[in-house]
Amino acid sequence: MKEFIEFLVKNNAITFGEFILKSGRKSPYFINTGVLSDGKLSYELGKFYAMKILQAFPQAEAIYGPAYKGIPLAISISLAMYKEYKKNLGWIFDRKEKKTHGDSGSFIGCALDVSAKIVLVDDVMTTGETKIEAIKKIEEGLEAELVGIVVAVDRQERGKRKSAIEEFSDNTGIIVEPIVKISEVFEYLKNREIDGTIYVNDEIYEKFIKYKKEFGSE
To answer: What are 41-88's pLDDT values in tens digits?
Structure first.
């Protein structure tokens, strides 16, 4: 866990300040794995995901990364999975708009057998709305079986009654596994110096606690 947290903060995949989320909430932190955009960082990120997928969904046969951010993520995980564990998983992603000529269709990537078991990967889980959209695309465009979702960070946001992840799993039957929870990130980083930098001081931590009380699930 600590290796992954330090990897994220040292490479600015988690930043702190004030950010307006897609949900409209004002967050004291932001997670964006899209900044890990060179060969070394992509591969390192892929290794963390590959390890989690093997632990949580060893039956997976392919990795699905929703466009656009999920595309390089799925490829990085596939490469890391083969390099580190000699397990050859295909990758697949969706087009934003269905192509009607040439290589037509809504998806690009490996050919899937009927009922092939796939894992969806993304950087965060907030309300779960974007994951619902991805599931609809899979149901409409693929005959594969979505066995689970792996995200880098569970923001531990509250849904209507339970946590967003619990409600999502209750409604869809799909298990969501985070590599790390946001509470673990803040607890680990609070006033901890990493390579000469304190990323979460008392002020930033208190903003997180306030946000957690308003929107958090626990």
So the answer is: 999 999 999 999 999 999 999 999 988 889 999 999 999 999 999 999
Alpha carbons 153 and 15: distance in angstroms, whole number:
13
d(CA 150, CA 17): 26
Residue in 123, 170, 181 with CA at minimum distance from that of residue 150 = 123
State the catalytic residues. 99, 101
CATH no. for residue 36? Answer: 3.40.50.2020
* Helix 70-85 × helix 39-56 angle, to 10°: 70
Given a contact cutoff of 8 angstroms between Cβ atoms, the answer to whether 185 and 204 are in contact is no
122 and 66 Cβ atoms separated by less than 8 Å: yes
- Domain housing 48: 2-215
Give bridge partners of residue 158 from the DSSP assignment. Answer: 163
Domains in the chain, number: 1
Strands 105-109 and 117-125: unpaired
**Considering Cα of 177, then 183, then 153, then 165, what sign does the dihedral take?**
positive
Query: What is the pTM (predicted TM-score) of this model?
Result: 0.91
